UniProtKB/TrEMBL annotation, chain A:
PANTHER family: PHOSPHORIBOSYLFORMYLGLYCINAMIDINE SYNTHASE SUBUNIT PURQ. The active site is at C86 (nucleophile), H196, E198. GO terms for molecular function: ATP binding; glutaminase activity; phosphoribosylformylglycinamidine synthase activity. Pathway: Purine metabolism; IMP biosynthesis via de novo pathway; 5-amino-1-(5-phospho-D-ribosyl)imidazole from N(2)-formyl-N(1)-(5-phospho-D-ribosyl)glycinamide: step 1/2. The gene is purQ. Gene3D superfamilies: 3.40.50.880. Part of the phosphoribosylformylglycinamidine synthase complex involved in the purines biosynthetic pathway. Catalyzes the ATP-dependent conversion of formylglycinamide ribonucleotide (FGAR) and glutamine to yield formylglycinamidine ribonucleotide (FGAM) and glutamate. The FGAM synthase complex is composed of three subunits. PurQ produces an ammonia molecule by converting glutamine to glutamate. PurL transfers the ammonia molecule to FGAR to form FGAM in an ATP-dependent manner. One of its GO terms (biological process) is 'de novo' IMP biosynthetic process. This is Phosphoribosylformylglycinamidine synthase subunit PurQ. It catalyses: N(2)-formyl-N(1)-(5-phospho-beta-D-ribosyl)glycinamide + L-glutamine + ATP + H2O = 2-formamido-N(1)-(5-O-phospho-beta-D-ribosyl)acetamidine + L-glutamate + ADP + phosphate + H(+); L-glutamine + H2O = L-glutamate + NH4(+). It comes from the Bacteria. Its EC number is 6.3.5.3, 3.5.1.2. It is found in: Cytoplasm. GO terms for cellular component: cytoplasm.
TrEMBL record, chain B:
It is an enzyme of class 6 (ligase). InterPro entries: PurS, PurS-like_sf. GO terms for biological process: 'de novo' IMP biosynthetic process. It comes from the Bacteria. It catalyses: N(2)-formyl-N(1)-(5-phospho-beta-D-ribosyl)glycinamide + L-glutamine + ATP + H2O = 2-formamido-N(1)-(5-O-phospho-beta-D-ribosyl)acetamidine + L-glutamate + ADP + phosphate + H(+). Keywords: ATP-binding, Cytoplasm, Ligase, Nucleotide-binding, Purine biosynthesis. Pathway: Purine metabolism; IMP biosynthesis via de novo pathway; 5-amino-1-(5-phospho-D-ribosyl)imidazole from N(2)-formyl-N(1)-(5-phospho-D-ribosyl)glycinamide: step 1/2. This is Phosphoribosylformylglycinamidine synthase subunit PurS. Its EC number is 6.3.5.3. Part of the FGAM synthase complex composed of 1 PurL, 1 PurQ and 2 PurS subunits. Part of the phosphoribosylformylglycinamidine synthase complex involved in the purines biosynthetic pathway. Catalyzes the ATP-dependent conversion of formylglycinamide ribonucleotide (FGAR) and glutamine to yield formylglycinamidine ribonucleotide (FGAM) and glutamate. The FGAM synthase complex is composed of three subunits. PurQ produces an ammonia molecule by converting glutamine to glutamate. PurL transfers the ammonia molecule to FGAR to form FGAM in an ATP-dependent manner.
Length: 222, 81
């Protein structure tokens, strides 16, 4: 399988994600630069965390309009699996592949800590190796992770079973609507999440709860 | 032609920064402040001299990049040279 990690100026989790993908796939993913207008056909594309374009204007807004994203959107619409983590989730909402927006945390602080998550939907292409309702611990590190969408969109996400991860109600770090930590598209092949599974993907990092995101998608695509 | 674009949060969208500013004003002793909402002001200088065409172009810029219409409204003001 072919996987790619998109690297924007200001991405800072791209290499961490590449390590996780290489461990899961047995081969290194392609690292694709934001200014490239072409991208080889990919089965999996990851938009990593970081501060693309310095978070200018709105988080993810400049990256969403970069040359490579036209290609990412085109491949996503043809069925490529796409994972956006943290800033990558913000890019996915800004480019319209996922609904809603990530607003500033209600506490006005950058929050960097472990969060307890519930795997709300284990039927996405990325979450099949988790049990439905399983509680996992994955760290967040963001200032704009407060998921917001209008009531109709939230209801649609619930009705279509598109909420992939929620924060434990007492552990919502940012004020996100419905405690949403991650959502998917209707087909479950595009997932965006604020927590960083790549930062908890081996024992040396304090736990392996995030690892199954990567082994799961590799299994699903193999 | 120069233009200014005001980008503001839609009604009902929580504005934590506006709330913090509102609280700070209260702490500084400014009474009677009912609400503070924070937005953005963007200045654009265009080659276009026809107001209607300029406004249409700016609206497209707002829709595509300058505003996120999920949470933000925009108002375009053309400034006479």
């Amino acid at each position: 399988m072919q996987a790619a990690v998109i690297v924007f100026p200001g991405s800072n989790c791209d290499r961490d994600v590449a390590v996780c993908l290489e461990a899961a796939m047995g081969q290194a993913p392609l690292m694709a630069w934001h200014g490239d207008a072409a991208l080889p056909k990919c089965d999996l594309i990851v938009l990593p965390g970081g501060f693309s374009y310095g978070d200018y204007l709105r988080c993810g807004s400049m990256a969403a309009n970069s040359p490579i994203m036209r290609e990412v959107v085109a491949q996503a619409q043809k069925g490529a699996a796409v994972l956006g983590i943290c800033n990558g989730f913000q890019v996915l909402t800004e480019c319209g592949l996922l609904p809603g927006v990530l607003m500033q945390n209600t506490g006005l602080n950058f929050v960097c800590r472990n969060t307890r998550l519930t795997v709300t939907n284990n039927k996405t292409a990325f979450t099949a190796q988790y049990a439905a309702g399983e509680e996992i611990t994955v760290p967040v590190a963001h200032n704009e992770g407060n998921y917001f969408a209008d009531d109709d969109t939230l209801k649609q996400l619930q009705d279509e079973d598109r909420i992939a991860f929620t924060y434990a109600p007492s552990d919502n770090p940012n004020g996100a609507c419905l405690d949403i930590a991650g959502i998917s598209d209707k087909a479950g092949r595009i997932v965006g999440m604020m927590p960083h599974p790549e930062r908890r993907a081996e024992a040396a990092l304090g736990g392996e709860d995030g690892k199954r995101m990567f082994t799961g998608i590799v299994e699903a695509l193999s | 032609m120069k233009a200014t674009i005001h980008i503001t949060l839609k009604n009902g969208v929580l504005d934590p920064q506006g709330k913090a500013i509102e609280n700070a004003l209260g702490q500084l002793g400014f009474g009677g402040v009912n609400e503070v909402r924070q937005g953005k002001l963007i200045e654009v200088d265009l080659d276009e001299s026809d107001p209607a065409k300029a406004e249409a172009a700016l609206a497209e810029m707002c829709e595509k990049l300058l505003a996120n219409t999920v949470i933000e409204n925009y108002q375009i003001h053309l400034n006479d040279a």
